Amino acid sequence: MGEVILKGRPNARQVEFFKALARHIAYGGARGGGKSWAMRRKFVLLALNYPGLKLLLLRRTLPELRENHVLPLLSELHGFAKYKDDDKSFTFPNGSRIKLGYCDTDKDVYQYQGQEYDVIGLEEATHFTEFMRDFFETSNRSTRTDFKPRMYYTSNPGGIGHAWFKRLFIDRDYKGKEKAENYVFIPAKVYDNHALMESNPEYVETLESLPDDQREAFLHGNWDVFAGQYFREWRRDTHVIEPFQIPNHWFRFCSIDWGYNDPCAVYWHAVDDRRVYTYRELYITQTNASDVAKKIVQLSGREQIEYTVASPDMWHKRGTAISKDGQTKGENIAEIFMDNGVWLEKADNDRILGWTRMREYMKMQPDGKPLWIIFNNCTNLIRTLPQLIHDDRRVEDVSDGLEDHAAESCRYALMSRPQAVGTIVTTSSDLMPQTLDTPFVITDNGFRHKSEVATVDEDAEWFRRAGW
């Protein structure tokens, strides 16, 4: 075996990545930050410095693995490390071994079952599902006394694993036995990659000329904006504000997406001149319907909640239930809520129209604000809404299998409001019927929600408060 000459000089961000010693170390964000080079170089340095080290470097597909790592490492380690093509591994003179692998589907993880690696790297980590990541973490173990197991990640915003990556490394929202000190993220942008800036400055111009949402993700590494994102209108700095005291005269209503093992997402909304403010959140799991209803009543206090729209499946008969007096009876979830003081109205569950309504409410208005604004205490809504992506087969819909409970609840809420149009056309009741098969009725002052139609003398005040 000869000598190995490692070419290239790391930039400041890559040096941070090389020096980090946490259990989980992530690098990247924007495109062009030198992620693949940094991952390869770190693995080679570890293999050289720790004899007998076992390393596993993964990409999602075999073609990606070959182009991004196999070919570059063959060139760099030629004549120094022995390469075996059948298992895509490089064995170093000191006994260290870098195995290159792929994991195209969830079931592919089982080819690594029972294997043990001191170091595991997920290249383009957001292309891996959370199940994959969790599985590989169980293989990241070691009996060595001179080295503690580590996992390395590189990634850009977007992809099926965007949510788990963002939770761990960007939002730093930890669960169970996860500890903040075990997770480090080193952000990198194309401007940090001096080699690329010098050799291909046109690449920066390409990123700078992208549409606004893509430029935010690819150039600036904004984790709230990414390719495939469903609500591309989302901007945290315009849609989220600090809470303020809601005036008593504002029209208020609630929305519910029911869940027991899945989260039950309840939101409180207030209306001011057609603008909807979502001001309170209840996001809980494994809580009985009666207890959720009591919690809603408690949180609402003396507020005048005009109506509550809820997921239609709450009206499905679900077998035996417990009423508020402790008696067993067969009823649906909606009846349990109403027994405990929360009167419900079945929501309009047209998914495509509902998502479209939400987009319209998220658009900027002439006054520089959207029609839907969220208080920053609604943490789960703010966390999950920008993570929703398009369904691969039904592109106008949100993809299944994502944490969409908060979004579903707010979809029900905004579907109970008028369309987000600039003007509201007033239609005489002499020309239009008074009864429609919708939550709305027609009055001399236009379309109104059923609950907002009071006596003739009270109509004007109700309509003004409701923002219709």
Give the gist of this structure.
Helix content is 29%, strand content 21%.
Oligomeric state = single chain
Strand order of the largest sheet: 3-4-5-2-6-7-1-8
Number of domains: 2
Helicity range:
25-40%
Q: Considering the protein shown, what is the CATH homologous superfamily of the largest domain?
A: P-loop containing nucleotide triphosphate hydrolases
* CATH architecture tag of the largest domain: 3-Layer(aba) Sandwich
Q: How big a fraction of the residues is strand? A: 15-25%
- Report the C-alpha radius of gyration, rounded: 27 Å
Q: Which blocks of ≥5 consecutive residues have pLDDT under 50?
A: 423-437, 441-447
| Count of DSSP strands | 19
**Which structural category do the helix and sheet elements fall into?**
alpha/beta
Summed up, the helix count is 15
What's the CATH first level of the largest domain?
A: Alpha Beta
